[in-house]
Amino acid sequence: MALVAHRICIHHHNVPAMNRARSVDDFRRASADFVGATLSACVADTSGHIAYMLIGRLPDRPGDGRLPVAGWTGLNEWRGLLPADANPVSVDPSDGLV
């Protein structure tokens, strides 16, 4: 079994930086290189900006991830981790909901 959280975790500096963020953009920068179990974050700042973002790194693997795959053949091994900017994010959605 593979789990991103078992990989190198560099969250020891990310979490304090996320806590000190003064804006949505500060939070995005602070969380950009977080590696570990993914977290859903809803953030807001005093300027009225709101955002939802998935922080952490997702595995790059074959297929679209909707169905289980044969894990015993070696054909479906992870190819690494996707970049943080591949994660879902919604900043200041028009309906005002995150």
Give a description of the structure:
The chain has 98 residues and is α+β, with helices and mostly antiparallel strands. The protein has helices at 11-20, 24-31, and strands at 39-44, 50-55, 89-91. A 3-stranded antiparallel beta sheet has the order 1-2-3, with helices on one face. β1 (39-44) and β2 (50-55) form a beta hairpin. α1 (11-20) packs antiparallel against α2 (24-31). The radius of gyration is 16 Å and the shape is elongated.
Mean pLDDT: 86
> What Rg, in angstroms, do the CA atoms define?
16 Å
Strand order of the largest sheet: 1-2-3
- Beta content: 15-25%
Structural class: alpha+beta
Low-confidence stretches: none
Q: Care to give the gist of this entry?
A:
By secondary structure, this protein is an alpha+beta fold.
Features:
single chain, 98 residues, alpha+beta, three-stranded antiparallel sheet, elongated
Map the helices and strands:
Layout (H helix, E strand, L loop, with lengths): L10 H10 L3 H8 L7 E6 L5 E6 L33 E3 L7
Antiparallel strand pairs: 1-2, 2-3
Helix pairs in contact: 1-2
